[in-house]
TrEMBL record:
Cofactor requirement: Mg(2+)
A Pfam family that the UniProt record links to this protein: 7TMR-DISM_7TM
Protein name as it appears in the record: diguanylate cyclase
Alphabetical keyword list: Membrane, Transmembrane, Transmembrane helix
Boundaries of every GGDEF domain copy: 414-546
Molecular function terms, GO-annotated: diguanylate cyclase activity
Keyword Membrane: yes
Organism of provenance: Dyella monticola
UniProt-listed SUPFAM superfamilies: Nucleotide cyclase (SSF55073)
Transmembrane annotation, as ranges: 161-184, 191-214, 226-245, 257-274, 289-309, 316-334, 346-367
SMART domains linked to this entry: GGDEF (SM00267)
Catalytic activity: 2 GTP = 3',3'-c-di-GMP + 2 diphosphate
Amino acid sequence: MIWLLWFSLVQAAVINVPLRGAWHEVTRGDTPASVLAAFRQGTLKVFSPSIMQRFSREDLGSWVVLEPQGASTKEERVLSIYPAPMGSITLYAGHGPARTLALDDFDNSLHGHGRLAFRLPPGQDSTQPLLLKFEPTGNMAAPERFELQSLDDFVQEDSNWLTFATACFAVMVAMALMALCFAIMLHDVTFAWYTGYMLCYVVVQGVETGFLFHPLQLRWLAGSEVLVGASAVALSVSFASLFIVRFCDVQRFVPPLRVPVIALGFAMPLIVLLRCSGVHELVVMAQTLVNPVLILGALLLLFTALVAGARGSRPAWFFLVGWTPLLILTAMTSAQTTGALPSLDWLNDASIAMGAFEAIVLSLGLADRALTMRRDRDNVRVLADRDALTNIFNRRAWTEAANRMLEGASGSERSIALLFLDLDHFKALNDFHGHAAGDRALVAVADVLSSELRPTDLLGRYGGEEFVAMLHDVNQEQALHVATRLCRRVHRLEIPVNLQDLRLSVSIGLSMRSMGDTLESLIERADQAMYYVKLNGRNQAQAYERRAEMRSTSPHR
């Protein structure tokens, strides 16, 4: 919108030569002289060249006469027709030869970007009427307005428009390509549908403004701009339909509308195929269907996004904010083709600016969606990695993290200690106080262990009443000191086991990493040390030693 305001202010600063206009449809036997004579007699239909006017392009076309108002001048002038019309226009001026211009004309030295421009030589009488013939095209004619200005003013205005349009198209293409990169990286087809939709809209505006011809010089499009533009419009609606299904999560928030929206997405390419078939009957059918389907489809997408947004779909509001203004502008432009809103000559440029605005808004919505997906994925990962009761690592996640720590320390002298912890008399606690009390005891013990260990140490629930911890950068003496402190902290919880004043405690076995150790070998040695503690009084820590009595310990709890 800032671009559009800036562009409008710049346009207002350019002074144009006032024109008086009149026109009528071409009839057989018309000549330039007879049309100019009818103009002087006042028998032509009068119109204001400064506002939008629609001229018939059916049958034989239309004649348009423009008479400059004001003092004569010798400077070089330019007559421009905005927006650039489909089909060719012939200028009859003075005694020189007639000149014909079209959007796909690559021979003219002066190209009006976004419009057609006729350069008038300085020697020509500046007050003489200018006669234009809008050649027949067989397509619905869009309204145009006319400007007569000095060459310097035209060049300034043309440069401003080119800067404005290039910036808008650059934003749309950049957002589309960025979405395509995300589609590839995230394997999410939602971004791909957005890319298709935005690129199709770029093609639509590029054809309608002539930007694809001047300045991009895409000569291979010459003669097929009408078909390319119509196909791009249909495909943009198709991509928008497939995009909104996933982006707004229609299946979740508006399930009854999912099938109609997807059907719209597949119907538009079928209409394009009919249009390209070359079979007259099928082409006529496609031309008959396209506008009603476009109108109904736009209303369907708008309604779907509104309902999804009302039911809690956050992305739907991004879609509505970005797409609704563009839909309103499209409706206003369509109304203008029927003669309504003739003074709103900025609608075409507003559509380009609003396309860039929509690209930015929907890109923000896609970024928000990507962040939401990442947050949800992280939450799922946390739920998958955490023990549901104690909220510390479960056995699988702890094993993976411990293996990564060991791999990171392989080939180095980095010391790693493994603690294997088993709660004493836990079965008796469950039997006497019930499993709910046992669960509360496990939660309390996990909290104590977490608070005593460093954040970088790995703590996990190995199973039942067993816990494991992997400590890095500690020697055996330090690790034993940590394990002893853990024993004391658990015992100080004073969790009663039975009526004989027995309190819950923990037995801890310790093993230190040696070269060539695996996680399984570390756990096995720490487990043996823990069993040794079980057999020798419990509620203490013991490092693994290669002694016969420790290796022969049996798994008694």
